[in-house]
Write a structure and sequence with these properties.
The complex is a heterodimer of chains A (about 160) and B (about 375).
Chain A: H1 29-42, E1 46-50, E2 55-57, E3 74-76, E4 80-91, E5 97-109, E6 115-119, E7 133-138, E8 151-156
Antiparallel strand pairs in A: 1-2, 1-3, 4-5, 4-7, 5-6, 7-8
Chain B: E1 5-12, H1 24-39, E2 48-52, H2 55-58, E3 78-81, H3 85-97, E4 103-111, H4 118-123, H5 139-153, H6 157-172, H7 185-190, E5 193-196, E6 198-199, E7 208-217, H8 218-224, E8 229-238, H9 252-265, H10 270-273, E9 276-278, H11 284-293, H12 302-307, H13 324-328, H14 335-348, E10 361-367, E11 374-381
Parallel strand pairs in B: 2-3, 2-4, 9-10
Antiparallel strand pairs in B: 1-7, 1-8, 4-7, 5-6, 8-11, 10-11
Classes of the chains: A mainly beta (about 160), B alpha/beta (about 375).
The complex binds zinc ion.
Zinc ion binds near residues 53, 64, 66 and 69 of chain A.
Chain lengths: ~160, ~375
C-alpha cells in the first residue's frame, strides 16, 4: 500500500474542466402559496401561529418547528419590523468587489417570532443600527410576480 | 458486548490550499494507507467503512458510490454520511457498539480547490425560495451572526481578532497546517471588510486534505495499539434551517450536543475536567461562541478568556492548538476530522512542538458552516 511515485512538475498535470448544469423548479407549497399570494395580490405579509407554543412563524409554516403541531391559523402580521441584526456586504457571490455595498438585515416582524432576511434601502450604511424600526417596501402591483423579490427592501420608518 | 471503542490508527495528508498532484481519490488513498499501517491492519481485516461526502462539494451526484475503491472497501459494507466527519465517526462507533462489527474505518476528504465556483455552491445550500433569490455572498450569514453576537455579549472585534492571531500562530508549529502565520490584531482589523463586521482574516481559508481513522472494539484495540485513544462521549444536534427563526447570537445546537456528550462522558465541570479543545473556528467569532456553548465559560465571557491567554497552548485550557480552521484551513466535511486528529495526537503525546502537558481528556467539535446549524462533538481520553 502507498504511493511510490508522485508527479513532480506542474506542467505534467492534467485536469478536466466540467460544469454541472442544474435547473430546478421549487414549488413553494401550501404555506408558501399563501405567503406569496398575499404579497403579490395585497402587499401583505402573513405568518402562522402555534397556539400551544405561542409562537408566530414568519414566513408561515404548516407545522410548528418546536412542537410539530399542524398550523392552519394564518394571520396578517403587518409590514413593520425591527432590525435584529445587519451586515454590510462588499463582495458578490463570485468574490468580486461590489460597486456599491449592500446592507442585509434580519428583520424581525413586529409581534411575531419570525421575520425576513432582506435588504435595507433608503438609508446610509453608517446610520443602520440594531433595534431600528423598518417597514417593507413592495414593488408596484403590476411588477409583482409572487417572489421574495416583490419586496424591494425594508426602509426606516 | 463491547462498551469501549478506541481509535487505533490515524492517517492524514498535509492540509494545503491546493493539491493538484493528487486526485481526490488519491488523497484519501494516501491517508488510508497511513492509517492502516499505523493500526497494523489491511482492508481485508476491516469489517465496515464509513465515508463522508456531500454531493455538490465532491462534484458528483450519488457521490457515495465513489467512496469504496480508495479505502480498499470494494465488495465490503460501506455507508456514507452527508455531514461532518465527526458524524461519520459516531456512526462507526455505534456500528462497533452493536457487537457485530469489530474494526471499522472512517474517512473524510476535502478537495475545495476543485470547486471553481465555491461560493456559488455554498449559496446553493440556502433556502431556494426565501433566501437564494437575494443572490448574496454566503459570508453575509456570518456577518449577520457576528454582528448580533457582538451586540449581545459586548465582545469586541479586537477579541475576535485575537483568536485569529492565536490560531495562525499555533499553526506555525503544526507541520500539517497550510495557513500558519505570525500576524497582529491590527492586521486582522485592517484586512478588507467582506461582510461587516467580518474581515478577510476573520474567515478560515479553504483547504484540501484527507483523514482516515481506524476504530476497534476494546479487546481488539488493546491488541492492535499500545496507545489506544478511547471515545468517552459523543453528541450531535441540528437546529432549524430557517434563517428567519433561528437564534442569531448563540449556537444552540452546540449547547445541546455538548449536554449529550458531557452526560455520556460523565463530565460535570468541563473547564476543570477537559484538558484541551479543538472546536469549530470557521470564523473567528465562532471560537468564542462555541467556547460559551460548550460551557467552558458563561455567556459573554469568552472574550475575557482570550484576553487572559487561557486558550493559548500554555494556558489553562488550550483551544485549537493545531491552528484550527483559521490556521489549518476550512476542510468542509473533513473539518471535524482535522480536529479529532489533533486531539488524538495530543493525547498520545505525539504533537511535537505544540504538545500540551498532561493532556488526558480532549474534546473535538465541528459545526458544518454557513448556513447550517448542525453541531457534532466527540470526547476522547488516553
Ligand atoms: Zn408549537
Amino acid at each position: 500500500m502507498g504511493i511510490t511515485e508522485k508527479i513532480k512538475r506542474n506542467i505534467d498535470m492534467t485536469s478536466w474542466k466540467d460544469k454541472i448544469p442544474v435547473n430546478y423548479i421549487y414549488t413553494v407549497g401550501i404555506a408558501g402559496e399563501k405567503f406569496f399570494r398575499e404579497i403579490k395580490d395585497n402587499g401583505k405579509i402573513v405568518g402562522t401561529k402555534c397556539e400551544k407554543c405561542e409562537v408566530t412563524f414568519v414566513p408561515p409554516k404548516i407545522y410548528c418547528e418546536r412542537c410539530f403541531s399542524r398550523l392552519e391559523n394564518y394571520i396578517d402580521v403587518g409590514t413593520k419590523g425591527t432590525v435584529h441584526t445587519f451586515t454590510i456586504c462588499y463582495e458578490n457571490v463570485d468574490g468580486t468587489k461590489k460597486e456599491e455595498p449592500t446592507i442585509i438585515a434580519m428583520v424581525k416582524i413586529d409581534g411575531t417570532d419570525g421575520g425576513l432576511v432582506h435588504w435595507l434601502g433608503e438609508i446610509d450604511s453608517k446610520d443602520v443600527e440594531i433595534g431600528m424600526s423598518v417597514e417593507a417596501i413592495f414593488k408596484a402591483k403590476e411588477e409583482r410576480e409572487g417572489s421574495i423579490l416583490d419586496i424591494k427592501y425594508f426602509k426606516p420608518t | 458486548m463491547t462498551e469501549k471503542v478506541a481509535i487505533v490508527g490515524v492517517g492524514c495528508t498535509n492540509f494545503r490550499s491546493t493539491t493538484p498532484d493528487l486526485s481526490y481519490r488519491e488523497l484519501t488513498y494516501e491517508a488510508a494507507t497511513k492509517a492502516y499501517e499505523e493500526a497494523g491492519v489491511e482492508p481485508k481485516d476491516i469489517d465496515s467503512f464509513v465515508s463522508t461526502a456531500e454531493d455538490f462539494f465532491e462534484g458528483y451526484s450519488i457521490a457515495d458510490e465513489y467512496c469504496p475503491d480508495q479505502l480498499g472497501a470494494v465488495l465490503k459494507p460501506v455507508n456514507t454520511i452527508a455531514g461532518d466527519f465527526l458524524q461519520s465517526l459516531i456512526t462507526a462507533y455505534m456500528q462497533i457498539l452493536t457487537g457485530r462489527l469489530n474494526i471499522v474505518a472512517v474517512q473524510a476528504m476535502s478537495k475545495a480547490s476543485n470547486m471553481t465556483t465555491l461560493k456559488e455552491l455554498e449559496l446553493f445550500a440556502f433556502d431556494p425560495v426565501f433566501n437564494r433569490p437575494l443572490a448574496e455572498n454566503p459570508h453575509f450569514v456570518a456577518g449577520l451572526e457576528m454582528n448580533r453576537y457582538l451586540y449581545d455579549t459586548k465582545i469586541t472585534r479586537e477579541q475576535c481578532a485575537k483568536v485569529v492571531v492565536k490560531n495562525k500562530l499555533n499553526a506555525l508549529n503544526n507541520p500539517y497546517a497550510g495557513h500558519g502565520a505570525k500576524i497582529t490584531v491590527e492586521d486582522v482589523l485592517n484586512s478588507e471588510i467582506v461582510s461587516y463586521p467580518l474581515t478577510r482574516l476573520d474567515i478560515s481559508p479553504s483547504s484540501d486534505g484527507a483523514v482516515v481513522m481506524v476504530l476497534a472494539s476494546e479487546e481488539t484495540a488493546k491488541k492492535l495499539s499500545d496507545k489506544p485513544i478511547w471515545i468517552r462521549g459523543v453528541g450531535w444536534c441540528s437546529d432549524t434551517f430557517s434563517l428567519e427563526s433561528r437564534d442569531w447570537a448563540q449556537p444552540i445546537s452546540t449547547k445541546i450536543a455538548a449536554e449529550m456528550a458531557y452526560k455520556m462522558a460523565k463530565i460535570n465541570d468541563p473547564k476543570r475536567e477537559i484538558d484541551l479543545v479543538e472546536l469549530s473556528d470557521l470564523f473567528s467569532y465562532k471560537e468564542l461562541q462555541h467556547l460559551e456553548a460548550l460551557k467552558f465559560c458563561s455567556k459573554g465571557e469568552a472574550g475575557k478568556m482570550v484576553d487572559d491567554g487561557v486558550t493559548e497552548i500554555g494556558g489553562e485550557l488550550p483551544v485549537n492548538p493545531s491552528g484550527g480552521s483559521l490556521g489549518v484551513g476550512n476542510l468542509y466535511e473533513c473539518s471535524g476530522a482535522q480536529k479529532a486528529l489533533e486531539i488524538i495526537l495530543q493525547l498520545r503525546g505525539e504533537a511535537g512542538k505544540r504538545q500540551i502537558k498532561n493532556a488526558n481528556i480532549g474534546l473535538a467539535h465541528a459545526w458544518r458552516g454557513v448556513p447550517t446549524t448542525t453541531s457534532v462533538i466527540a470526547i476522547f481520553s488516553n
